[in-house]
Amino acid sequence: MVKSKTDWVKVLLDQLLWIIMAVIFILFTLWIGPKRFLSGTNLVNILLHATVLGLLVIGQSVCLLSKNFDLSAEGTVSLVTVFAAYFMVPIKGFGGGGGYEWNPLAVIPMMLVIGTLAGLVNGLLITRLRMNNFIVTLSMQLVLRGIAYVISGGLQMDDTPDIFNWLGTGTIGPIPASIIFTPLLFVLVGLYLKRSRFGREIYAVGSNSDAAKASGFNPNKVVTIAYMFSGLMAALAGWMLLGRVQSSYSKLGAGFTLETVAASVIGGISLQGGMGTIGGAFSGVMLLSIVDNGLNLMDVDPFWVNGIRGFIILLALVIDSQKIRYKPKSVPSHIQTQLPTV
Hints:
two-stranded antiparallel ribbon; disordered C terminus; 73% helix; 15 helices
């Protein structure tokens, strides 16, 4: 069977990210030098950058698959890290916490609950009150960071306990634990979305909410769960980030929002919902991590770095728009065959 031009264009668009990543990787290797860019230490640095961002991207991707944004994640990171430090770190003048010195094994579950509850509030406001997801989550980011500022009083809290820091600084053998944890979570979430009923529901809701509802799905429930999951991932990212830097302040986590959306879209998660995979999102995370690392090694001016990031995001949007243009008109077979009948 002869493939049409549309088929070839779609294949090219699907593989374009890997081509771009390969070209960028080769260029950085030539410009910076193989001994420096390809050194074991630098490759580990690239992977470490991808870990915290990757956790946030998992949550953002699930929301985008449901055709919604979550711009509140970095606010959740700020709140849970300040909360954890405040209740774990003893009073030490200008660098201490609240002096409660709670056990980290009790604080960590509380962080995860706070993140999940923040996602629940987002989901309920969007689905029950029919509020715009962009405005709700952007406002929630400000609210959560404001609460973090009130708790911390604007002060920095240092020296979190070693047992708490393990996810950020611990190792499994010679390998940092975070480098194992984040890719493993990508694999598990990807498999879950592929094989579970919820995975089928979120793709169906993102593709066509009305059709999904007619098929027996509950779009409001699906979207709410997506936001709760995103909040949980943000809390995990906060735990990993605080464990790595071992110092908390109200703006810890600032600047992640744009990167999470960019990495998701670059990796093939469509802004139109219902298209893309978690595995693809991971490739977007790796591309941004490689670019940030390479530009840093080249001592590129920060203003140029932001401009290059913006160009990459625009390129991702162009690719996304063309994927929509060449998107098959029918529902993919792996989803269609598993949709319930009315």
